[in-house]
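Before the break, one more example. Copy the sequence into your notebook; we will annotate it together after we see the structure.
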Amino acid sequence: TWDGFTVQNGQMAGDGAGAYLREKVRLSHCKVRNNVSVDNDGGGVYCYYSTLEDCDIEGNTCSYNGGGVYAYQSTVSNCRITNNTANYGGGVYLSYGAKLLSCRISHNQSAYDGGGVHAYASSAQIRNCLVDNNTAGTSSNNSLGGGVYGGGTLVNTTIVRNLSVVAGAGVYGFNDASVTNCIVWGNIVLD
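Here is what the structure looks like once it is written out:
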């Protein structure tokens, strides 16, 4: 368990420039900010079979997936994930079996899909979150899902004031995506 740390200004050509959590590691009450992952995933935190809780993830960047957090078979809860950037999943990239619980995902940006959250797998879950003021895409590329992009389960979540260049400014779901008891309001598509 890592508890109460500040991890900042890291840069690497690999996953998790701020923190790399693998196999039952817990990161709690930490600040992870201004880290850069070049040519890989998880600019702030790369979370693999681990837990991230009660953390501030801010101002991180990566070249591929999950500017703030990349999560695989992991739980991310009670975190504030803001002002991060990536190609896919500016704030968070949820891969197989990942859960995003009671988090605020705000003011993140993706070059392509999932400004706030990119839920890659149908087993991904987003519950009791606020996803607001995120942006998917730029004027020069196609992008979907300003707030949330992907499959999986979306429950009791508020998705407001997000922006997308092409479609699904609030939510762009596909395959077996499920949206239950959510508020999706005030999202804007530019195209």
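The chain has a mean pLDDT of 95. Residues 40 and 174 are 25 Å apart (CA to CA). Try to locate both features in your own notes.
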